[in-house]
């Protein structure tokens, strides 16, 4: 007999609207998370609430206004669509829920809905392919903090990462094949950045990440190193698309300071333009849905940088969004855990 199961998909989050008030609320919740900015409590509070949020909120609000559609936030809209499509694939007794780690649908409220329905099992899938403490770790910690207070705790399964899931890779490959790959001199795989100190904490040998072999090899020692899994994701995609190593670069975007993972995407894009690359195709395999980082940061801001540096055309491979292959992959991930 199949257990009555709730499947919770969790993405990072989005403001309720692009207004200053709602963007400020979102940034404050997001950046005050101790896993996002892993500084001592008082330093984090001062930095976030007195410096980062006050100085960033106005510009962030303008960017979200550019991102917003008539229907609302793309991240939320794609999340709802994925939830609906995946629910159609499920047998009776398997219910799909959607929550955001920050803001709405609020993860606490959604888990309360789940608690009241007395499921035998809960499967929690963060929508981040590569594990990072500030994304997957924060999501799973939040879920555990809520569930641990329930009087009845059912069986709970967490999915920590799936960067090497065949369907995940194949869906990106299929999206890339919509372009004439022979028309591009170079390919960029741009991942969301992290402070170097956060990836260093993955290792128990007191050797920093940069002194390991994360660019070239993945094994049991660096399986949960975000940098290593980003490079592994890239190798899997490049192999299926027959892109030679000398024609692609792995980089990291959205940095807050110089002590984040390098190379920086904006610097690589500028350098490629200055070195004579005219046509550049960018992948963003850390994002399962198009969002501010892909739609605005890469497609608009980085494209302008590339052209200013001498490049001609920068195209972006769309994220998984609600592609049939992505729904197939999620279906397989869920049913294999039932």
TrEMBL record:
<protein>
    <recommendedName>
        <fullName>Ferrochelatase</fullName>
        <ecNumber>4.98.1.1</ecNumber>
    </recommendedName>
</protein>
<feature type="binding site">
    <location>
        <position position="293"/>
    </location>
    <ligand>
        <name>Fe(2+)</name>
    </ligand>
</feature>
<keyword id="KW-0408">Iron</keyword>
<dbReference type="InterPro" id="IPR033659">
    <property type="entry name" value="Ferrochelatase_N"/>
</dbReference>
<comment type="similarity">
    <text>Belongs to the ferrochelatase family.</text>
</comment>
<keyword id="KW-0456">Lyase</keyword>
<comment type="function">
    <text>Catalyzes the ferrous insertion into protoporphyrin IX.</text>
</comment>
<dbReference type="InterPro" id="IPR033644">
    <property type="entry name" value="Ferrochelatase_C"/>
</dbReference>
<dbReference type="Pfam" id="PF00762">
    <property type="entry name" value="Ferrochelatase"/>
</dbReference>
<keyword id="KW-0350">Heme biosynthesis</keyword>
<comment type="pathway">
    <text>Porphyrin-containing compound metabolism; protoheme biosynthesis; protoheme from protoporphyrin-IX: step 1/1.</text>
</comment>
<keyword id="KW-0479">Metal-binding</keyword>
<keyword id="KW-0627">Porphyrin biosynthesis</keyword>
<feature type="binding site">
    <location>
        <position position="192"/>
    </location>
    <ligand>
        <name>Fe(2+)</name>
    </ligand>
</feature>
<keyword id="KW-0963">Cytoplasm</keyword>
<dbReference type="InterPro" id="IPR001015">
    <property type="entry name" value="Ferrochelatase"/>
</dbReference>
